[in-house]
Design brief:
By secondary structure, the protein is α/β, with parallel strands linked by helices. It has helices at residues 18-22, 34-47, 65-73, 83-91, 108-116, 127-139, 175-183, 208-224, 250-264, 274-277, 310-314; strands at 4-7, 10-13, 16-17, 29-33, 54-58, 77-80, 99-101, 121-124, 144-150, 191-198, 230-232, 267-270, 281-292, 297-301, 320-322, 334-337, 346-350, 361-365, 385-390, 393-398. Helix 9 links the parallel strand 11 and strand 12.
Length: 409
């Protein structure tokens, strides 16, 4: 069920009219549906219910503490890639025993933090990182549970900037290096190898790369003869940003995962992010100006690439929908752009769109993942507000940043 939909040509999020919100709040702002997030989490969990995985939400997708609190209530853990994300996850109430720390460049300070907080796993991405963790753990007189991340050299069909599983990518160890590491792990007396981890990329819409990954994992397990307590299969599950995007068949994949789990008697960890929050939010913006170009009209929004980076960074396609449908045809192509002084501060072009007027409001769709979390103060712009809807109630979960806070930086 979509909780972001039209009623009588007016855009609603759950039971709240976006038109009513923009009459009270200054734009732009992020607007989330709590019910959408909850339903996405339930759907993901139900698809894998036979395997009973630990679901560790990928905090980098959206690190708002109030959203993390919603997921904590659902039973979610957290996949974090920085000390800040770790502290946010704990502050939201997520138990350290449900937190996995990933990332290729963990600092000494972050490693100490993870050890002192007694998190479930530190996922190691290089031999030198393992050596450093072993040293810090020894100084703290602790034995630390780690996972080792595999780079399976699998080319997932996704954008090159969000591919993480090819040999040329910086993530994880090659099969050969990982096997060697596993066979020599006893030299690192303060580490306990509990997991093997893999994550091959993001916005993947086919189950085939995941099937290939399971086969590589089987090869590793058979060669090392290690009974890993956990197999962390990562995330990367895509959503349909465009009409012709094919949704991944999680049922088919879940059957393969369950066979794998039974065969190797392990516990499964997943790290979904986009699949949980991606389609659960819109970015509401105002048409600041209409400007005639030589072959198209520019609709210049008051939201820019500082507020929403995905189009500029990943060439991502996000539909822009009107807050009020008027049924009037526009004359010629219309391109939605932002105010930032970069050519890449643009969103999408339509050959046909409804007639727009200055001061009309629109919504950028499917911005719940990597929207607010990638936003910045570029051009000395304040971070915009985030609002969450629960049925008929709207709640501010991040206030718009005060411009005064930027002036002394």
């Amino acid at each position: 069920m979509s909780y972001i939909r039209y009623k009588n040509n007016n855009l609603f999020v759950e039971n709240v009219s976006v038109r009513r919100l923009v009459s009270k709040l200054s734009t732009p702002f992020y607007l989330y549906s709590e019910s959408n997030i909850v339903e996405n989490y339930k759907s993901f969990s139900n698809n894998f219910k036979k395997s009973k995985p630990l679901i560790c939400f990928s905090v980098k997708a959206n690190s708002n503490i109030q959203i993390l609190k919603v997921l904590k209530k659902m039973g979610s853990g957290a996949d974090v890639v920085s000390g800040g994300e770790l502290l946010k996850a704990i502050k939201s109430g997520i138990q350290p025993s449900k937190i996995v720390f990933s990332g290729v460049g963990k600092t000494e300070e972050e490693i100490r933090l993870a050890i002192k907080r007694n998190i479930l796993l530190i996922n190691v991405e290089s031999e030198n990182e393992a050596i450093l963790i072993n040293k810090i753990a020894g100084n703290l007189k602790k034995k630390i549970a780690i996972g080792i991340r595999l780079n399976p050299d699998i080319n997932a069909p996704t954008h090159k900037k969000i591919s993480t599983g090819k040999a040329e990518d910086k993530f994880g160890l090659s099969k050969t290096s990982l096997i060697s590491f596993c066979l020599n792990i006893k030299k690192l007396k303060n580490l306990r190898l509990k997991a093997i981890s893999v994550h091959i990329g993001s916005q993947i819409l086919s189950e085939n790369p995941f099937k290939k990954t399971l086969k590589v994992l089987e090869e590793i397990i058979n060669k090392t003869k290690i009974n890993f307590k956990f197999v962390d299969l990562g995330g990367g599950f895509g959503i349909a940003y465009k009409k012709n995007d094919r949704k991944i068949n999680l049922k088919n994949y879940s059957n393969l995962v369950e066979k794998f789990r039974q065969k190797y008697n392990c516990s499964i960890i997943f790290e979904p992010g986009r699949a949980i929050v991606g389609d659960a939010a819109i970015l509401v913006a105002k048409v600041q100006y209409l400007k005639k170009g030589s072959n198209k009209t520019f609709a210049i929004l008051n939201a820019g690439m500082n507020d929403f980076m995905r189009t500029a960074l990943y060439d991502a396609v996000h539909n822009i929908i009107p807050v009020i449908k008027n049924g009037k045809k526009n004359n010629g192509p219309l391109e939605f752009v932002g105010p930032i002084c970069e050519t890449t501060c643009k969103f999408i072009k339509y050959n046909k769109y409804q007639r727009m007027n200055q001061s009309d409001y629109v919504a950028i769709s499917d911005v719940g993942a990597y929207g607010a979390s990638l936003s910045s103060n570029y051009n000395t712009k304040p971070l915009i507000a985030e609002i969450i809807i629960n049925k008929s109630k709207a709640r501010v979960i991040r206030k718009k940043q005060d411009i005064k806070s930027l002036l002394n930086q």
